[in-house]
Amino acid sequence: MKGQSYIILAIVFALLVAIFAVINVDPVQVNYLFGSGEAPLILVILISVLMGGVITASVGALRYFRLKRDYKNLEKKQDTNQSAVAEGKQNEEENSAERQTVE
């Protein structure tokens, strides 16, 4: 159901963009760092949206990989702690067995 919601939302968004594209075909002046030129308004808007999406996706991917690395480190730490606890319990059992034989 969640996947269908995303598909429907994507179709609605694509429809809105198509309508917006048909309405905004007027050329606008675009000033670059190295010059200027004219481009259709929808092209300027779409490129801006795509650049924003790429930047957002990049930040999200970096966060995902950092969290994944942290998760692996925590798993290793947990394994180390669990083995230390198991070793401590084993030593405790051995010590209590030795005490019982001494008494």
Automatic annotation (TrEMBL):
Residues 89-103 have a biased composition (Basic and acidic residues). The keyword Isomerase does not apply. The chain crosses the membrane at residues 7-25, 41-65. Keywords: Cell membrane, Membrane, Transmembrane, Transmembrane helix. Residues 24-82 form the Lipopolysaccharide assembly protein A domain. One of its GO terms (cellular component) is plasma membrane. The keyword Membrane applies. Residues 77-103 are annotated as: Disordered. It comes from the Bacteria. Pfam families: LapA_dom (PF06305). This is Uncharacterized integral membrane protein. It comes from Salimicrobium halophilum.
